[in-house]
Amino acid sequence: MPYHKNKQQAFQAAQQGTMEAKEWYDHLVKDQADYGSQLKHLKQEVNEAFAQINNALEVASEKQRKQLEQFRDDLQAIVDEVNQYE
Predict the structure, then answer these.
(1) What is the pLDDT of residues 9-34, one digit of tens each?
(2) How far is residue 34's CA from residue 58's CA, in Å, rounded to a whole number?
(3) What are the entry keywords (predicted)?
(4) 3-class secondary structure for the chain?
(5) Residue range 55-59: mean pLDDT, rounded
(6) Engineering a disulfide at 49: which of 16, 17, 19, 68 sits with its beta carbon 3.0 to 4.6 angstroms away?
């Protein structure tokens, strides 16, 4: 049972990290004075989420793996979008 619990906890951390990164991205406003600060925080959230996803992939079930790969794709889309403006 502890293995299953760790697997679920790892997945939930990756899911939460991805959601937080998406929220930061949704609130990012290019024209605001604190854009640089917002962007720095977004990058930190994205990097943490990628790390959580990689950690979860090590113990994920097949169903979780597919969802984690989608999280990773979503984050990569954010990175690609942000890089267009830099």
Answers:
(1) 999 999 999 999 999 999 888 778 88
(2) 37
(3) Coiled coil
(4) CHHHHHHHHHHHHHHHHHHHHHHHHHCCCCCCCCHHHHHHHHHHHHHHHHHHHHHHHCCCCHHHHHHHHHHHHHHHHHHHHHHHHC
(5) 95
(6) 17
